[in-house]
């Protein structure tokens, strides 16, 4: 693109140069896989008979190789509201495949845990590593050499990254993600936040809190706040791995069904086309587009971990310096709760992803010339889908229909993307500025050190934190306990801030898209477990956190101290089964993955 922003070009060129060796090895592997992977015709009769034994009416077509056979890899379960609609998808997708002379089979299922259920519980310590398990499960599903393309059914936090990481090892095939859409909006987000803070202060009981939460999370579909799940859907649009505009159309709508049907038809058409395989679609430009979309929409901080991990699976190396440099030039175009008052439904109604992509392309802030599964280039993703009578069509969404939700590049909510790198003698960390008032971007105060979020809650209840304070929660990294999200910190820290105190959080754990209004340095690397600098902090040490100049430091003499040791017993709730993942996980900036580290990726 001739109008590409020079910083976007520079960062992309740097990633391409840095990735030459690893990207070259990956593409060579995919070329070899394309040459040596047996098609169904070369399987032994016994192999093939096993593969279509239960295919019923599709058996003859698969046996004769009359058309492409599509793999459905599904993360269905009916505990996750976002994934409950997937229950009926396979039977419909088989019908849609037959419409274009193809067949489809459920190749396998992957686990899909709900971070909303496990927040603050022991099970949350399995969450990040579930991404590795999902990637491994995707590989198992695709290992049968029965398929000509991949349809991936997943939405939520670790599930989309895990599916993509696994699918990229079969990148010689085409691939499409098939979302199912968000649930209808519930109670106003400010009301939900108000009740949570009342509960934290002891001014609301459990029944009142449960009633509030149940009115917010209330039906099938993705939770409507802009956390990791909805950020996943945004990124799949920015990378061109959806049918254009599929991200935020609600379940049950005729438009949703037609988008899913079109995804199957498109995948069948791509099968056998070596020019538009997943390996070729997910290149350096697509990864940069994902990062740009994250910044432009104020998406989940979890993707500072997931983007490097997904990129590694494609032989691409991106780091937090790249994200921070992009953040300085990519403006914030959307304010979606918790960064604003409206949810993803309001965002979609205001113009949604079509508007965002059109604005970014117009300003030279995204790569138009990427290979997509749904169209000739990313330009087609700058339109919105609609039903023209009974026909799926796309149109220009026009100007923003709500400037409290969406604004143009020429008049953004803020001039940068709201995710900054902070670093110093306490390590490197991410600071999400998009939800934090600029007057709170710099906090300097004595620290109080904790090793669990529950201990923070106890200290808050006793009034021990009623002062200016930097709350440090350490031993929350991948190697210590699987890097759980620390959502239980948000209400008490928010209350302290509302009381007029200067408050910040520093942690080697995660906060995700719900990090909220309190300034926070998260994903601190190196983590405390193993001797990282957070392990040497003591109560009362002065800590400075500043998003403006990118500082995360203390004036304490850390070199003169021995690090504290991690002693928590990681047993129960299946955590002992994940000891291998904790032992071999690499740092957050590389993706926090044991699987990728041990695979040498």
UniProtKB/TrEMBL annotation:
Pfam families: ILV_EDD_C (PF24877), ILVD_EDD_N (PF00920)
The keyword Metal-binding appears for this protein: yes
Cofactor note: Binds 1 [4Fe-4S] cluster.
Pathway: Carbohydrate metabolism; Entner-Doudoroff pathway
Superkingdom field: Bacteria
Cited InterPro entries: 6-phosphgluc_deHydtase (IPR004786), Dihydro-acid_dehy_C (IPR042096), DiOHA_6PGluconate_deHydtase_CS (IPR020558), ILV_EDD_C (IPR056740), ILV_EDD_N (IPR000581), IlvD/EDD_N (IPR037237)
Residues binding [4Fe-4S] cluster, per UniProt: 156, 223
Keywords (A to Z) from UniProt: 4Fe-4S, Carbohydrate metabolism, Gluconate utilization, Iron, Iron-sulfur, Lyase, Metal-binding
Sequence ranges assigned to domain Dihydroxy-acid/6-phosphogluconate dehydratase C-terminal in this UniProt record: 405-591
Biological processes per GO annotation: D-gluconate metabolic process; Entner-Doudoroff pathway through 6-phosphogluconate
GO molecular function: 4 iron, 4 sulfur cluster binding; metal ion binding; phosphogluconate dehydratase activity
Residues in Dihydroxy-acid/6-phosphogluconate dehydratase N-terminal domain copies: 68-379
Required cofactor(s): [4Fe-4S] cluster
This protein's GO CC annotations: cytosol
Primary role: Catalyzes the dehydration of 6-phospho-D-gluconate to 2-dehydro-3-deoxy-6-phospho-D-gluconate.
Family: Belongs to the IlvD/Edd family.
Protein name from the UniProt record: Phosphogluconate dehydratase
Organism: Croceibacterium salegens
